[in-house]
Amino acid sequence: MSPLCPLLLALALALAAVPGVRGACPVPADLKSANGTRTCAKLYDKSDPYYENCCGGAELALQPGADLPYLPSDWTNVISSLVVGQRCELTVWSIRGKAGKKRKFSAGTYPRLEEYRRGIFGDWSNAISALYCRCAPAPVQTPRRRVS
């Protein structure tokens, strides 16, 4: 067996376990509502060992500035996949009222929250009870002046 084979196998396994792999999740740049307004984040109640099956089930879209210290009862401790829009940040807490463990998710795709540690023994899948989502303002394009 070639000495290169174990290295290639290790590389393939490492790439398969990279956080941020998209699977069936939307691209952060595509997070917009039906009328074209910006969406801060989308939360999903289903994940799967296979990335292509993640970001399924019920979906909760958050607008910029969404501040939910008490998630609706049907969303408390059920979120297992999420996508955060570009130039946005989602802060989550493990206990209602913004208490307990806290984590910030920057722009990106998080198909399996089981891969993100919450303390020594826990993870963030089915553990989010409060959240705050904020986005930086979109850059303002100024018209260029013509020099005569």
UniProtKB/TrEMBL annotation:
<keyword id="KW-0968">Cytoplasmic vesicle</keyword>
<dbReference type="InterPro" id="IPR028137">
    <property type="entry name" value="Syncollin"/>
</dbReference>
<keyword id="KW-0472">Membrane</keyword>
<dbReference type="GO" id="GO:0006887">
    <property type="term" value="P:exocytosis"/>
</dbReference>
<protein>
    <recommendedName>
        <fullName>Syncollin</fullName>
    </recommendedName>
</protein>
<dbReference type="Pfam" id="PF15138">
    <property type="entry name" value="Syncollin"/>
</dbReference>
<keyword id="KW-0268">Exocytosis</keyword>
<dbReference type="GO" id="GO:0042589">
    <property type="term" value="C:zymogen granule membrane"/>
</dbReference>
<keyword id="KW-0732">Signal</keyword>
<feature type="signal peptide">
    <location>
        <begin position="1"/>
        <end position="23"/>
    </location>
</feature>
<keyword id="KW-1015">Disulfide bond</keyword>
<comment type="function">
    <text>Functions in exocytosis in pancreatic acinar cells regulating the fusion of zymogen granules with each other. May have a pore-forming activity on membranes and regulate exocytosis in other exocrine tissues.</text>
</comment>
